[in-house]
Amino acid sequence: MSATGLTAAQAGLVSCETCNLLTQPVHPERPGHCPRCGAELESRRPRSIQYTWALVIAAAICYIPANLLPVMNTTTLGTTEPDTIMGGVVFLYTSGSWPLALVVLIASVMVPIGKLIALTYLLVTVQRGVQGGTRERTRLYRMVEIIGRWSMLDVFVDTFTVALLQLKPLMSVEPGLGVLFFAAVVVLTMLAAETFDPRLIWDSGTRVEK
Amino acid sequence: MQATVEPAGAMETVACPDCDLLQQIPPLNPSDRARCTRCGHILATAPRDPLDLPLALTFTAAIFLIIANTIPLMGLSVLGLTASTTILGGALEMWQTGEPITAAIVAFCAVIAPALYTVFMLAVLIAARRPPAPHWIGEMLRWALSMQPWSMIEVMMLGILVALIKIAELATVDPGIGMFAVGMLVVLFPAIMVSFDPREVWKRVEWVDGRLHPLSAVRGTPRMEQAQ
Questions:
Q1: What is the ipTM of this complex?
Q2: How many domains does chain A have?
Q3: Residue pLDDT, tens place only, B177-206
Q4: Quick check: A17 contacting B, CB < 8 Å?
Q5: Domain limits for position A91
Q6: Nearest Cα residue in chain A from B159
Q7: How far is CA A12 from CA A42, B45, B223, in A?
Q8: pTM (2 decimals)?
C-alpha cells in the first residue's frame, strides 16, 4: 500500500459525518457544529467502543430467547402448536420449498449470529490495536451494515401470517414472545453497526506509519 | 488510475468517512465513481442527472407508497371464510394480539421510515432546484439519510412472499393491487438512491453560518483512484 497521506485527525481537521465538509476546529476537543449543515462535529463517534459493546452484548442476550421461545402459536380446531424460528425453517424445507427454507435460514439464523461474531471481532481487534487486515476488516464492517437489515425478514413473515390467518373458529395464529426478542436482536445489532466507528480500525495503524 | 495534483480549484478535499484519509476528489465524468485509495469506500459518484431524475422517481414512489398502504396486499379464502390485510393492518393485528412493541417496529420499518424518507427527499429535491437552497434542507437531508437503513420495503416484500407460500398450503391466496405497488417500491427506492448525489445538494445549500462558499483553506494529500 503506497498511501502515505495524513488522516483528517492527524491533520487536526474534522470531517462532518452528515455533509462531509472538512473544517479546522478552533478547539480540537470541542469541535462544535458544522458551519454548512449544522450537525454536531466529532472527530470519532463518541464512546463508540463502549456503546457498540453494550449493544452487542444486549443483542447476544436477546438472541437466546429469540430462538428458544415460539415466534407463533397456531391454533387449529382447538389445539395450539408453538412454532420457533428453526421450526419455521424446517416447515418450509419439509413442505418442499427448500430455496425459501435456505433464505429464511440465512436471514434469520446465520446473519444475526454472523453479525454478532463480526462486531465482536471488530471490537476486540480495535481494542488490541491490531494493525493488519485493515482493508478486510473495513469490508467486513460494510457487509455487517448492508446485510443487517435482512434479518428483519422473519418478523415480517410472522406479522403477515398472523394478520392473514385469523379464520376463527377454524384456525388462528397468535404471535409468540420469541418474535419480540428476535426483532430486538435485529434493531440492537443495526444500532451497534451504526455506533461502531470504522475509522478506529485504521487509527492504530496510521499513528505508527508516519 | 491515479490522478496527480492539479490546481486545487475544482477539486474538493475530503476525509474518507470509513478510514479518515485525506484526499482530493478529481472532477468526475458522468457515471464515474471515486473510491478511497486506502479502504475502497465510494467517496463520490457522478450521476448524470443528480436532482431531477431522483425527484421524478421520488414523486412516483410517493404515489405507490400511498397505494401500497391503502389497498389490501392480498386476500385469502378457505371454506367460505375470507381475510385480507394491508401493511398497517398487519401491524395492527400484531398489536391487538399482544405484541405492541413488535407491531411498532414493523410499522416503523415498513411504513413510517419509507414515508419519512420519501417526504424528506421530496422536500430536499424540490428546494434544491433553486440555489441557494435554504439551510433547513440540510437538516431534512440528514433525516432522510438516517431513515434509509430502516426503510425495509424489500425485506417486507420477501417476508410477505414467504408468508404467502406458507399459507398457500392451507388456503387460497390472491395477491392484491397493494402487492404490486410494493413491488414497484422495491425497484423505485434503490433507483432513487443510485440516481441521487447528496454532494449536489451540499453544493447548493446555504450554509448555517450564512456563507455560501466552500472553505478552501484545507489542503490534503491528493491521491485518487477512479473506478468505472
A1: 0.88
A2: 2
A3: 899 999 999 999 999 999 998 888 888 888
A4: yes
A5: 45-209
A6: A157
A7: 12, 27, 19
A8: 0.87
